[in-house]
Amino acid sequence: MSFRFRAIAAAALSLATLATGGLAFAADLPVKAAKKAADLPFFLVIDNRVTFSYIFNASQPGAWSFRPDGSIDSKTTKQVYSFTHFDLWAYGTNFFTISMFKSDHNDPAGPCTNAGTIFGAPAICAGATEIYGLFRSTFGWNELFDTKAFTAGPLHNISFEVGMDANTENRYFGAAKRDVVGGLQFAFDLPYKGYINVAPLVYWEFANHNSFSQCGLFGAGVPGVTCLADGNTSFKPTWAVEVNYYMDLGFLPPNMQYFSISGRAGWYGKKGTDTQPLPYSPANGVYNTAVELNSEPIRLTFDASKAAWGDKYSHFVDVWVAYRYWQNKFGLDHNLAVGCTTAVGGRTVSTGSCTESSLYSGITVKF
């Protein structure tokens, strides 16, 4: 049993490091179904971490500027400060993360600027700040029903999964959202103490505020026709699929077994128009939302504390590098939505502010 829980603790670190970026997903980590022994603690694993990371080429819908040569610059760097908590108890897992994203001048904070200065040259004011929180919980069927019936081959368990997300920003556009998810998670074992979890979910973004849809900020507008009086939207429920994985690189020679790989991806279906409940109408600047992909396909982690001080301190300090890709941010169609496009030479072009492709790196410390 002690070996098994050491494996669980090693896998848990992946969830903590995946958290930065706002969308990491709780995992029903590999735990063989068995009755809980009387002398076991209520929480079998508790894992808390802090992370500092850096996104080299982030983007933000509506935040862009013209370069001197006339091309569009939609890139901003972001510093990210994160706290993550993961625990494993008798019937499942709980995962929570809260992150603060700090942008550079190409994504300025409000109210020190407005649309007229953002869309001309980089604003000479502080970068915007965003706070993003996420929570996921799973309840394993093997544990709930005291059985091994839901373990077969590589399938380790099936779980109920619930969760929610919330964010707030101090940008001129005043974006904020609240959503809940619920569904199932299928947990599969991988070699070298690894796992891959696949969760088909229902996703409901029940509250969203964005000035792209608010009357008066981009022209007068007609309330209820071309814009919403207060900019507040409740989108339609839709589907989502969240995937995450982790695996030690156990095939390396013993003196090099300090590395692991992990990753995640989330697909979120169309949730109505981008100015829901207004109907689709290009003439009024109202477009359908698009399928959103928020992913970190690959992260390579170096267990610095194990390399420096030995197995006893494994994953106390991790250094990692990753690739991050996010298309149709927050469901906005990167080729059509008002917040993602501009007019150049009489035609509508994408500013690139609704798609993110970036190197991503950081350091994570367990405490």
UniProtKB/TrEMBL annotation:
Keywords: Signal. Residues 1-26 form the signal peptide. This is Uncharacterized protein. It comes from Bradyrhizobium ottawaense.
